[in-house]
């Protein structure tokens, strides 16, 4: 189903966009995946080293942690560093990578905060809530830089969500991450 969507999206977009616009879309899509995937990869590689929770172990008024132990300074720093580096490698200014990483991590922290308030188990998957904020916020931050219109934002957002859902399914199905629940 995902392949059919990508084929449809490619056919639709390629008829209405220039090669330069397609390049911008692909660049943004790659940077979104990098920004959101780097913290996971960093945790797998470094395991429990350099893990400092972003919320400092503090609790909200409802008695639950603000964000939980899986939202770490390492994740934020690695997303910022790697996404900025990849942006430079793709020929974009460094601040584009940093804006995308900052927006993605802010969206991820926001969704984590909301999930805690809704009693969703740590690392529990909520379709939409886990993807939309971490893709929409960075796209809004770079909207002017890439002259994105609503169609462009929605197109990238849909492609990102479908890719994230597919990756989540595969990693869960085949237990690829082997990470402890926190």
Characterization of this structure:
The chain has one domain. By secondary structure, it is an all-alpha fold. It has helices at residues 2-16, 19-46, 73-89, 94-117, 132-141, 150-173. The chain starts with a helix and ends in a 9-residue tail after the last helix. Helix 2 (19-46) runs antiparallel to helix 3. The mean pLDDT is 87. It is globular, with a radius of gyration of 17 Å.
Quaternary structure state of the chains depicted: single chain
Write down the Rg.
17 Å
Strand fraction: under 5%
In total, how many domains does the architecture comprise? 1
Poorly predicted runs:
none
Mean pLDDT: 87
Helical/strand content category: mainly alpha
Helix content: 55-70%
- How many H/I helical runs? 6
The ordered H/E elements are: HHHHHH
Write down the overall geometry.
globular
- The tally of beta strands, per DSSP, is 0
State the distance separating the first and last CA atoms.
Answer: 32 Å
Main sheet characteristics: none
Labels describing this entry:
182 residues, globular, mainly alpha, single chain
Quick recap of the structure?
Helices cover 65% and strands 0% of the residues. With 182 residues, it is mainly α.
SSE layout:
Layout: H1 2-16, H2 19-46, H3 73-89, H4 94-117, H5 132-141, H6 150-173
Helix pairs in contact: 1-6, 2-3, 2-4, 2-6, 3-4, 4-5, 5-6
């Amino acid at each position: 189903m995902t392949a059919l969507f990508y084929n449809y999206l490619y056919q639709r977009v390629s008829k209405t966009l220039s090669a330069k616009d397609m390049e911008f879309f692909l660049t943004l899509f790659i940077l979104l995946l990098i920004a959101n995937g780097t913290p996971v990869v960093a945790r797998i590689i470094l395991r429990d080293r350099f893990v400092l929770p972003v919320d400092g172990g503090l609790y909200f008024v409802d008695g639950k942690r603000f964000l939980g132990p899986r939202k770490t300074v390492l994740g934020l720093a690695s997303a910022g560093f790697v996404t900025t580096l990849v942006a430079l490698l793709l020929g974009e200014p460094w601040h584009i990578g940093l804006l995308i990483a900052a927006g993605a991590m802010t969206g991820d922290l926001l969704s984590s905060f909301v999930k805690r308030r809704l009693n969703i188990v740590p690392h529990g998957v909520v379709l939409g809530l886990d993807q939309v904020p971490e893709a929409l916020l960075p796209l809004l931050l770079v909207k002017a830089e890439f002259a994105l219109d609503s169609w462009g934002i929605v197109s990238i957002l849909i492609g990102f969500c479908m890719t994230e859902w597919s990756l989540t399914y595969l990693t869960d199905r085949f237990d690829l991450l082997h990470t402890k629940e926190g």
